[in-house]
Amino acid sequence: MTKKERATFVINTLKELYPTIPIPLDHKDPYTLLIAVLLSAQCTDVRVNQITPLLFAKADNPYDMVKMTVEEIKDIIRPCGLSPMKSKGIHGLSAIIIEKYDGQVPQSFEALEALPAVGHKTASVVMSQAFGFAAFPVDTHIHRLMYRWNLSNGKNVVQTEKDAKSVFPEAVWNDLHLQIIWYGREYSPARGWQLDRDIITKTIGRQAIIKEYYKKNPV
User: Fold this and answer.
1) Is the pLDDT of residue 12 over 90?
2) Is the pLDDT at 219 greater than 80, yes or no?
3) Of 5, 122, 178, 218, whose Cβ has the fewest other Cβ atoms within 10 Å?
């Protein structure tokens, strides 16, 4: 298959598997999504979804969040890891959103990435899932699968994002990045991978990876 044919196979297969696409992080508006995505750095979505109700019960908007101290925020979000950095970021970005944007999450990559503790991936998730802008946030699942599917060289997430945007039509980016995440979790994980269940990799995957898999897991 050509790269374009592999990309089309991915799109069509994922449409069949995930006709409706749930957003992994629970939220009710752009602000709570921003906080949830920030907390998800080096933390599972399951854990984040357990912690955010505790945090949002006290502060689900920037005005209430700045009334809390950094220490109070840190105590709540501690199970998510990196709590010193994340708590300072949450408090700091909430103050900026109030001061510069009248309490509303800004709708631009530049403004979002200028907020404390907000990187390109977090900004991309918010822009795509909260505001509907075309974006292709790359997490560990997408980075892994783009390499397995021979659609990217796997050097780094920046290159993976560029490759994804070049090979997939912009119209499908917002749905597709979520579909790939769900597929990676269900069928093509980093650990406990079973190639026979992973129809996409088995059909279009990088041959060196497939050969190595069967070498380690002879039929």
Assistant:
1) yes
2) no
3) 218
The tokens describing 87, both together, are 């708590």
- Does 64 participate in catalysis according to the annotation? no
- Name the catalytic one among 139, 162, 165, 202: 139
Does 215 qualify as catalytic in the annotation? no
Catalytic residue among 45, 86, 121, 163: 121
| CA separation for the pair 83, 70 (Å, rounded) | 10
Residue at 160: amino acid letter? T
Cβ neighbours around 166 below 10 Å, total: 11
Q: What average pLDDT does this structure show over 100-121?
A: 97
